[in-house]
């Protein structure tokens, strides 16, 4: 759902500098052989920078992703982290190609997606343990699941208004919309009361619920008719479960999900969001780009080979 350190997009340098300082202290004390960072959050960049300054090798898991939109803080984090990493573990062939275009070829491994590993490992456990559908009185394939948390959507009142207006239209057309509310989004909804975004108003048509556990989220995703999100991870999990997804962004780093037809880019366009949720078109069966569920094993073996050389 995103890095807590990106809660206020106007002050991202402050948490990064604080994390850099404190991570450096830990690394100086522990003296690790290698530092592993994951993804594209502020903490990813801070960890990589701290290690680089101390000349400690860096392994970046989920390397090579690009949205080609440098207005996204995550894009800057990805690019900088990749260019100072020693081992780069790519989830897809597209990620490998992205790095090659930036003249990064040394230490690059195509390993698959560790998130796919996790879904395979915990999917059945989630089905056994989670009671979220019963708790919310939801029927499989009879609801939409929505998440919103990115600064580009939450910090702009008009964008946030349009997105939630689209959710309301979808719900009013007969498809319940369940929204696990990210703390960032909850706070912004309260701030934007001039747009009549009060929780009691939204709750009259939408199912606004607190954030849920990982296992509950897997069950909600797997059983949804459609997913609406600005989260990169949720886009992927929708793809894993073959649930149509409407992405509330102009672009995505997970281009394979769009190319296969399982993901539609709708930005904050009200009609595109509603149409994507109502006129659902399942994607096509295509070559699986995310590996075979053994990405973590390949990462570990590569690190062990590098450390013991």
Q: How are the SSEs placed, and which strands pair?
A:
Layout: H1 13-30, E1 35-38, H2 42-53, E2 58-61, H3 73-84, E3 87-90, H4 93-101, E4 108-110, H5 114-129, H6 132-136, E5 144-147, H7 151-154, H8 157-172, E6 177-180, H9 183-191, H10 199-203, E7 207-209, H11 214-223, E8 226-229, H12 232-240, E9 245-247, H13 255-259, E10 263-265, H14 270-278, H15 295-308
Parallel strand pairs: 1-2, 2-3, 3-4, 5-6, 5-8, 6-7, 8-9, 9-10
Helix pairs in contact: 1-2, 2-3, 5-11, 8-14
Describe the fold and architecture.
This protein has 309 residues and is an alpha/beta fold. The chain has 2 domains: 126 residues, Rossmann fold; 162 residues, 3-Layer(aba) Sandwich (Rossmann fold), CATH 3.40.50.2000. Helices cover 50% and strands 12% of the residues. It is built from 15 helices and 10 strands. The strands form 2 sheets. A 6-stranded parallel sheet has the order 7-6-5-8-9-10, with helices on both faces. It has a 4-stranded parallel sheet with strand order 1-2-3-4, sandwiched between helices. Helix 13 links the parallel strand 9 and strand 10. Helix 1 crosses helix 2, helix 2 runs parallel beside helix 3 and helix 5 crosses helix 11. The protein starts with 12 loop residues before the first helix and ends with a helix.
Silhouette: globular
Q: What percentage of residues falls in helices of 4 or more residues?
A: 40-55%
Segments where pLDDT lies below 50 for 5+ residues? Answer: 1-10
The largest beta-sheet arranges its strands as: 7-6-5-8-9-10
CATH fold group of the largest domain = Rossmann fold
**Architecture (CATH level 2) name of the largest domain:** 3-Layer(aba) Sandwich
Quaternary: single chain
Class of the largest domain in CATH? Alpha Beta
The beta-strand count equals: 10
Judged by helices, strands and strand pairing, the structural class is: alpha/beta
Strand content: 5-15%
Order of helices and strands: HEHEHEHEHHEHHEHHEHEHEHEHH
